[in-house]
């Protein structure tokens, strides 16, 4: 009978295992089919796009040079961008007959070169605009929407003047151009991978505060001049400029206006090496004039670190030396005296915190983020991650975050088990969602606003699908894998140097204001923030402006400094907390370390309202939404740094005293 019962039980378990296997197989097939169909749909969609223009190729004479248009948008709102052809620009080039017809009007112009257009008629290419280009992941995240343009340019062939198209703009088209000009719209184009910028038009006699007044004029720039630098057959520089003499008055939008869009091309020899082609953008921009200020920022932070380190070493070592001498040289008389200070709470200092699942997940996520940040900075410094390739930093950050996800799962689960946690699966799931879920919530809001405004900042379906697959098929499984590795192989004993008592000791309630939790939080956030305040301005200007940040060596040094300052500062505040017999240090230490992120978010409000001209719900949603995510990431990173420093400090001081 026992054998029959055993066989029945085995048969029942076998059926359950078979059902579970079939369920997993069906889910796998469904997921694979979904991925296959989605990939096929994306492939069909992508097949309609033009191939990327390869940079660095050696051009032959009269070979086509492609001008790729990207986007337009208000200069003061870098995130508020729209498709280039959301404005009624020319989508097709004028025919040869149309060019010859309009050449008659340009022959008398001293700056026009009609012969140039006719001379290169043999190299005509029928090009259509508004056809999409393939893009990288980082470019799509940045809001790029590259499309073809009808400009017919051939390598080495200068053009003094050439008609792009002649159109008559109605009220709707004129209104869209006029509104864009009044909002200081700029356009962005590319020659290979070299960006070019210019303004759409200009305003004359406008009141700075009121805006358009009687007598003010609105002009549309109808002519573009391309200047292309070449070196050994390669394009090494590119710029575009407008001609103030060739502009069209579109002040009165009710009156149909004829506009002749034209362009000219100039090729010049340039001694700039192809590998250093992006140096012109930094040389002509912000960096050289403020490079000394960058070093001043680093020197300021470095001196602060030295002073803070010296202060901590002198003060803490003197205090700890006296404490060690008093606590370790115990005799009969002192035994009868009542103890006081941090040794008194040796039976409570290693009492685990409340909400240990959330605490362990926060520490694991912060450690993961700081690991990914270090990897990104090292890759940027060593050149493995090109910071000049558009969007490479963003795509590299996404991939690095996903590949290093096992760190968060391992660290959080190990700490959770050491704190006698029982439900490690819940801890792993919380770790996998602690940072991605807030990012997803903010993204859904800002993406919805961008879609409502028809902005290119809204991510396309293909990019969303790629990022979702990276999380579901790479980030989440690696987090669970790290948790499983910690469950099976990590050390589960906390190994506290002192025993924890069963009854929790009462914490003194009367403390001076400078020992209060709020005061310590302010001090904990202010000192690290002051170390990076100057450098933070240029990082913000690069993130939310039109500047290119290339000083990753200085950024790496500043990152190391803020980690050290945060760790030492938190240890000093922790000692004062323990000295007043407050043993609840786990959460306060984490929050004190992360307060720098709160200070950075507060600074973002000052930067938005007093250092930029940004405005509008779209730009404001992106700015404050993603700055909240960045500040939250810094909060988690520096909070985990503070915990690791503080745990080492507590283990050190309590491991060297005699305790009953």
Task: List the SSEs and their pairings.
Blueprint: H1 2-47, E1 64-65, E2 67-74, E3 82-83, H2 96-107, H3 114-119, H4 137-141, E4 147-148, E5 153-154, E6 159-169, H5 171-182, E7 185-191, E8 194-199, E9 201-204, E10 217-221, E11 223-231, E12 234-242, E13 247-249, E14 257-269, H6 279-283, H7 287-328, H8 332-336, H9 356-382, H10 392-403, H11 405-418, H12 424-434, H13 436-452, H14 461-489, H15 517-543, H16 552-579, H17 586-610, H18 617-654
Helix pairs in contact: 7-15, 7-16, 9-10, 9-11, 9-12, 9-16, 9-18, 10-14, 11-12, 11-14, 12-14, 13-18, 15-16, 15-17, 16-17, 16-18, 17-18
Q: What can you tell me about this protein's structure?
A:
The protein has helices at residues 2-47, 96-107, 114-119, 137-141, 171-182, 279-283, 287-328, 332-336, 356-382, 392-403, 405-418, 424-434, 436-452, 461-489, 517-543, 552-579, 586-610, 617-654; strands spanning 64-65, 67-74, 82-83, 147-148, 153-154, 159-169, 185-191, 194-199, 201-204, 217-221, 223-231, 234-242, 247-249, 257-269. By secondary structure, it is an alpha+beta fold. Strands 2, 3, 4, 7 and 8 form a 5-stranded antiparallel β-sheet that branches. The chain is elongated, with a radius of gyration of 32 Å. Residues 24-47, 110-122, 284-292 and 334-339 have low confidence and may be disordered.
The rough form would be described as elongated
In the predicted model, the low-confidence regions spanning at least 5 consecutive residues are: 24-47, 110-122, 284-292, 334-339
Secondary-structure-based class equals alpha+beta
Give the DSSP E fraction (strand runs of 2 or more residues).
5-15%
Please work out how many helical segments DSSP would assign: 18
Which bin fits the share of residues in helices? Answer: 40-55%
Task: Note the gap between the termini.
Answer: 59 Å
- Number of separate strands: 14
Describe the biggest sheet?
5 strands, antiparallel
Average pLDDT, to the nearest integer?
A: 82
Rg over C-alpha atoms, rounded to the nearest angstrom: 32 Å
């Amino acid at each position: 009978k026992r054998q029959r019962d055993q066989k029945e039980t085995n048969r029942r378990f076998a059926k359950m295992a078979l059902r579970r296997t079939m369920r997993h197989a069906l889910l796998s097939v469904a997921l694979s089919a979904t991925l296959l169909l989605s990939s096929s749909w994306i492939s069909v969609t992508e097949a309609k796009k033009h191939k990327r223009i390869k940079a660095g190729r050696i051009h032959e004479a009269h070979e086509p040079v492609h001008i790729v248009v990207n986007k337009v948008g208000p200069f003061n709102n870098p995130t508020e961008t729209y498709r280039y052809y959301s404005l009624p620009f020319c989508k097709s080039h004028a025919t040869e007959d149309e060019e010859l017809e309009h050449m008659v009007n340009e022959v008398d112009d001293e700056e026009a070169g009609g012969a140039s257009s006719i001379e290169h008629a043999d190299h005509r290419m029928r090009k259509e605009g508004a056809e999409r280009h393939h893009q990288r992941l980082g470019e799509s995240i940045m809001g790029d929407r590259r499309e073809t343009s009808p400009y017919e340019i051939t390598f080495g062939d200068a053009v003094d003047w050439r008609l792009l198209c002649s159109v008559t703009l109605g009220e709707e088209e004129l209104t869209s151009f006029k509104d864009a000009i009044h909002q200081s719209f700029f356009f962005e184009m590319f020659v290979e991978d070299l960006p070019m910028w210019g303004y759409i038009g200009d305003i004359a006699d406008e009141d700075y505060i009121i805006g358009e007044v009687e007598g003010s004029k609105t002009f549309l720039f109808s002519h573009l001049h391309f200047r292309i630098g070449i070196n050994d057959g390669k394009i090494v520089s590119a710029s575009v400029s407008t001609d103030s003499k060739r502009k069209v008055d579109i002040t009165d939008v009710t009156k149909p206006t004829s506009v002749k869009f034209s362009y000219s091309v100039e090729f010049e020899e340039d001694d700039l090496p192809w590998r250093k082609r992006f140096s012109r953008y930094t040389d002509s921009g912000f960096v050289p004039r403020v490079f000394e200020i960058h070093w001043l920022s680093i020197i300021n932070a470095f001196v602060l670190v030295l002073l803070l380190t010296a202060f901590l070493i002198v003060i803490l070592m003197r205090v700890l030396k006296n404490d060690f001498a008093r606590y370790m040289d115990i005799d009969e008389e002192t035994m009868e005296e009542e103890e006081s200070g941090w040794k008194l709470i040796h039976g409570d200092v290693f009492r685990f915190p409340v909400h240990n699942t959330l605490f362990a997940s926060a520490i694991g996520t912060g450690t993961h983020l700081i690991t990914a940040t270090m990897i990104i900075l090292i890759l940027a410094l060593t050149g493995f991650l090109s910071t000049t390739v558009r969007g490479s930093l963003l795509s590299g950050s996404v991939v690095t975050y996903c590949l290093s996800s096992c760190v968060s799962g391992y660290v959080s689960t190990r700490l959770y088990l050491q704190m006698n946690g029982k439900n490690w699966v819940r801890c792993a799931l919380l770790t996998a969602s602690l940072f991605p879920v807030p990012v997803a919530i903010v993204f859904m809001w800002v993406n919805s606003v961008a879609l409502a405004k028809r902005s290119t900042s809204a991510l396309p379906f293909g990019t969303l699908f790629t990022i979702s697959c990276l999380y579901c098929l790479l980030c989440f499984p690696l987090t669970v894998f790290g948790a499983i590795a910690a469950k099976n192989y990590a050390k589960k004993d906390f190994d506290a140097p002192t025993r924890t008592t069963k009854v929790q000791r009462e914490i003194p309630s009367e403390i001076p204001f400078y020992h209060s939790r709020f005061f310590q939080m302010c001090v904990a956030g202010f000192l690290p923030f002051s170390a990076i305040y100057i450098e933070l301005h240029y990082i913000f200007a690069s993130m939310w402006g039109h500047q290119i940040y290339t000083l990753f060596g200085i950024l790496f040094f500043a990152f190391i400094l803020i980690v050290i300052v945060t760790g030492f500062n938190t240890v000093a505040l922790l000692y004062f907390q323990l000295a007043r017999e407050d043993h609840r240090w786990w959460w306060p230490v984490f929050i004190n370390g992360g307060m720098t992120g709160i200070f950075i978010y507060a600074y973002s409000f000052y930067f938005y309202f007093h250092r930029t001209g940004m405005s509008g719900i779209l730009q404001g949603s992106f700015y404050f939404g993603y700055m909240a995510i960045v500040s939250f990431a810094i909060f988690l990173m520096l909070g985990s740094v503070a915990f690791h420093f503080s745990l080492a400090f507590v283990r050190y001081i309590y491991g060297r005293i005699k305790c009953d």
